[in-house]
Amino acid sequence: MSWRRGRNPWRRPIGLATWTWAYVLWMFLPVAIAVLFSFNGGRSRSVWQGFSLRWWTGEPNASLLHDETLHSALRNSLVLALLTMLVATPIGIALAIGLARWRSRTASGANWLMLVPLVTPEIVMGASLLLVFTNLYTGIPLGRPAQLLGHVTFSISYVVVVARGRLLSIGRDYEEAARDLGASQLQAIRLVLLPLLAPAIFAGFVIVFAMSIDDFVISAFLSSGAGSETVPVRIYSAVRTSSTPALNALASFLVASTLVALALGASVMSWFRRRRGTKESALADLTSVGI
To answer: Which domain does 240 fall in, by range?
Structure first.
C-alpha cells in the first residue's frame, strides 16, 4: 500500500515545489540583500551597521532624495523606458499583424529575421549601433536620441513574439466574420482584432518597459556623458569608484518601479480575462433561452 502511495501520480509534487521555491529564493536573495543594505546606517555596502533611512532621505548631499546625479539617472531611465514603450509597442503590434497576414515565400524568412535581435549578443548589438550612429547616421546625436532608437531596435522583437502568440490563439474567424457583416479591413482590425489583442498589447507595454529601464549595454554604448546616464550605467560607474548605500536605494527604487509596472500589466490582463468571461457567459445565457 505504501509502495502504491509512493507511486501515486496525483499526490502533491513536493519535490517539484521544493526545487521551485529553491530557485525563487536563489534568484531573489541578492535583490533582497541589496534592498536591505539600502537601509544600512553606515557607509558600508557589505557590513550591517544598523537600520536607518540615511541613504534614502537623511544624508544632505548623498541620499537618494538629495543627490541630483541620482535624480538625473532615474529621470533618464524612466523617460527613456516610457518613450521606448510608446514607440516600440505600436510598431511591434503592426509588424506582428503584418507578418501574420503575409502569405508568400519570403514570409518565413521575415519571421526568422524578427528573431535575430533576441539571439544576438547585446554587446554585439551595442557596438554595432555605436558604429552605425557615429559613421552612418551622423545626424542622430549620441545620448537620448540614439539610446531611444537603440532600445526600440531590440524591443520590437519581444512585442512581435507576444503578439504573434496571441494572434495564433485568436485565429482569423472573428475578423472574417466582421468582413462578412460589411466591415472594411481597417474596421475589422480596429473594432474586432485590436480589442482581442488588448492583453498582448498591454503585455508588450510592460515587457518593453521592463527591458528598457534596466538595460545597461546599449545605454552605455550610446551614452553621451553624465547627462544621458541611466540608472544601470550610473550604478556601474559608481561601483567602480567610491559607492555608498544610496546606490542600493536607487536600485531598490528601480526594482520597485519595475514590479509596479509588471503588477499593473498583470492586473489589466486579469481584468480583460474577467470581462471577456462575463461577456461569454452572458452570451451563453441568452443562447440558452433562445434569444
So the answer is: 68-273
